[in-house]
């Protein structure tokens, strides 16, 4: 799971960010001042740090500098307010990976987070649409290479398995009935039946679930169809 540290003293913004990140499946840590944030960053080594500049006590620049002096590899996205002394060049010199200017949309922030994460770890969280790699429990699913890697073992996904997984992931949390899945994945005129969906789900479970008979991600919704959970349930 990708861990994000939010260092922001403005409480409503910090809470809104935390909620939005949690609902996207990120593991979130928060700090309301620079010193606490820095200690948390050095202790926890989050994947991404969202760093406000104007903070009580230690300011964002000083936190950024200390993080880099410690050679912490976390990606840092600066949350800068209009009119604040944010010099782009200086920021990048200090080791920021990117920045957003307040007020920013959550969508914009997520796009930037995905970009910096893709650069720093080679893993793209969130949407599988980009042909990126998505971490799912112990597995790394590569939507560009049609593979699932677990530890040292690697398995291939068929185009239909990949498409079925992508469809379920893109509608995470939603129970999708078999007919809809057939239509979305195989197309309206395909000579496929509901059994086709079931057999592909079984094959996918063998590849992505730690215990295929006790699935945590590809869940059966009785009387309906299937539902995807990134976090894993049960
Ligand atoms: Ca602030």
Feature tags:
single chain, 234 residues, alpha/beta, Rossmann fold, Arc Repressor Mutant, subunit A, 5-stranded parallel beta sheet, 4-stranded antiparallel beta sheet, 40% helix, elongated, binds calcium ion
Structure description:
By secondary structure, the protein is an alpha/beta fold. The chain folds into two domains: 3-120, Response regulator (Rossmann fold), CATH 3.40.50; 130-228, Arc Repressor Mutant, subunit A. It is 40% helix and 23% strand. It contains eight helices and twelve strands. The protein has helices at residues 11-23, 34-44, 60-69, 88-94, 106-121, 159-170, 178-186, 194-208; strands at 3-7, 27-31, 48-52, 75-81, 98-102, 133-136, 139-142, 147-150, 153-156, 176-177, 218-221, 225-228. The strands form three sheets. Strands 2-1-3-4-5 form a five-stranded parallel beta sheet, with helices on both faces. It has a four-stranded antiparallel beta sheet with strand order 6-7-8-9, with no helix packed on it. Strands 10-12-11 form a three-stranded antiparallel beta sheet. Strand 4, helix 4 (88-94) and strand 5 form a beta-alpha-beta unit. The two termini are 17 Å apart. Calcium ion is lined by residues 9-10, 52, 54-55.
